[in-house]
Amino acid sequence: MKNIFLGALVPFLSAAIAVAQTSCTADVNQDSVVNLQDLLSMLVFYGDSCLEEATVFPTLIVSEIHYNPNSSQGNDSDWEFLELYNPNAFSVSLDGWKLTDAVSLVFASTDSIGAEAFFVVARNADTLAVSVPGHTPIVQWNSGGSLNNTGETVTLVDPMDETVVAVAYEDNDGWITEPDGDGPSLELMDYNLPNEEAASWAASFVLGGTPGAINSMWGLSEVE
């Protein structure tokens, strides 16, 4: 069938090739001329759908929340933070990603999170930076407000405006209570655990938490 089709097209192609080209978008093999070889290449894909596949973004995780620092550490406005974790074996660009609800932040096009690494979002990046490892990125959220001490939702949104994770932390109703002013942060115990569930979280062993570093509770749970 293709041979019959091609035979009928040869006269047309011969005339078409003689016409000067103002655009070479049909030059499939990039030889600077639109010819029979380009048509043969296109016929291989005849009938294929040209619908774009949905973009799938890598998984990222909210791994730590320090919403109510103890007064011995300092003022809430200086030490509150959120931490993101990238469980993938490759770096992920944060261009187009954002945090919503509890805090507001649109990540810069230059922001990225390394493979199996952390990224810190702070209320006061200058103050918290002294507690963050030098290799860990830290930025300040856009909204000037603080994290709610009784609980609210931390939402991470991908560049397609799809919610990746929404952690609705609280200081009761099954959530560990020590992070509400007693000193520890709220730490995810394992990145394989459901990010949104209260049972996946625990109080850090470290006063003020572990911003930008491995969680003190990391790996101390049994993943089902």
Question: TL;DR of this structure?
Answer:
The chain has 224 residues and is of the alpha+beta class. It has four helices and twelve strands.
Assigned CATH superfamily of the largest domain = Lamin Tail domain
Global outline: elongated
What's the story with the biggest beta sheet?
6 strands, mixed
Helical residue percent band: 10-25%
Q: Work out the number of β strands.
A: 12
Average residue-wise pLDDT: 86
Order of helices and strands: HHEHEEEEEEHEEEEE
Structural class: alpha+beta
Total domains, how many? Answer: 2
Provide a count of the helices: 4
What is the radius of gyration computed over CA atoms, rounded to a whole number of angstroms?
Answer: 27 Å
CATH architecture label of the largest domain: Sandwich
Low-confidence stretches: 2-21
Instruction: Please state how the strands of the largest beta sheet are arranged side by side.
Output: 8-7-2-1-11-12
Q: Beta-strand percentage? A: 25-35%
- Compute the separation of the termini in Å: 56 Å
CATH class of the largest domain: Mainly Beta
Can you tell me the CATH topology of the largest domain?
A: Immunoglobulin-like
Verbal overview:
With 224 residues, the protein is of the alpha+beta class. The protein folds into two domains: 2-43, no CATH class; 61-207, Lamin Tail domain (Immunoglobulin-like), CATH 2.60.40. Helix content is 15%, strand content 25%. A six-stranded mixed sheet has the order 8-7-2-1-11-12. Strand 7 (118-122), helix 4 (125-128) and strand 8 (138-140) form a beta-alpha-beta unit. The radius of gyration is 27 Å and the shape is elongated. The N and C termini lie far apart (56 Å). Residues 2-21 have low confidence and may be disordered.
